[in-house]
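re the bet — no i am not wrong, look at it urself. input seq straight from the record:
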Amino acid sequence: MADHYNVLGVDRDASFDDIKKAYRKLAREYHPDVNPDPEHSEKFKEITTAYEVLSDPDKRQRFDLGGDPFSQGGFNGQNFGFGDIMDAFFGGSGGGGRGPRPRHRAGQDALLRVEVSLEEACFGTEREISVETAVLCEVCGGTGCAHGAKPATCQICKGRGEVQQVTRSFIGQVMTSRPCNNCQGFGSVISNPCAECAGDGRVRAKRNISVKIPAGVENGNRIQMSGQGEVGPGGGPAGDLYIEILERHHDFLVRDGNTLHASISVPFTSAALGGEVVISTLDGEQKVVIKPGTQSGGTVILKNLGVTHLRGGGRGDLVVHIDVTTPTKMKKDEEELLRKLASLRGESGETVSVHQRDEKEHGFFARFRDAFGR
């Protein structure tokens, strides 16, 4: 058995970096792509075997103990190539070429936006939608070949999917690989392609699918439908289809998560005396009780009349914001009644008593109107 340390010219306690450096130096001189001389080729086999043993901790240990470093299989001392020298130079994994590209590949995901109303988002719905994607070619079944035909091995790359090219570099002649232009890297060519899909194994088509939109979805949510996306080249497995929700604005309800907001105007007499107002909600008409003395900016909460929780069940609330209106024009008798009321309450029309409004309450209603355009 050859002394691999002597072959590489390193000491028995040499580090991995020392071994790699020694191999790089010898490979520049003896690699067959650099020097095709038969004696150099044999020498390169010897130094490659030595590098394979000493660069692998397990094999090196078996060699140091006097055993066969290849007793557990693996490298047989005869296989060598450009990957070995590239591994030593640049730290790559080696292992030879990439091989041909598969024609049968997975398809891409698809995205479709669906507009829904607030009612549909709240309670859920089922939609029949039309989607155009790549689907399996039914004529060839995804093979891309005409009836009875089969892909033939590429005569340029001999089925490897890549061709090799020798160029000059700082170490001499270097062999590189690139995809074969004749077969586009597939290793085979379809000389008689399917007339329907032109050899791709798929065609574009419109189809209708049913989509269940769960209760509680909101703008921007996506629903994943596995296997409903684009069929891959060569009839490969389809990707997923994502349905993105676009929620339309409601006429008078504004959504904030699972909470709904509505703004109503009540006359100052109703705000002072109290009363009831009927409003439309997602659940039909509902009564809103106005308590006596209600101020502008006050709120009434209607429990469980908001949006359904997407996870966990239950519903949010509907918050009704009160805007107290003051008449801009009054009849003479109405004005007299108000003056009499002001007199009874000690509120002179010439002297206005200013009371500080609750900033928290006023500020919230102002922010609500600013945020929702009310």
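see?? Residues 72-97, 353-365 have pLDDT under 50 and may be disordered. told u. also The radius of gyration is 40 Å. so pay up
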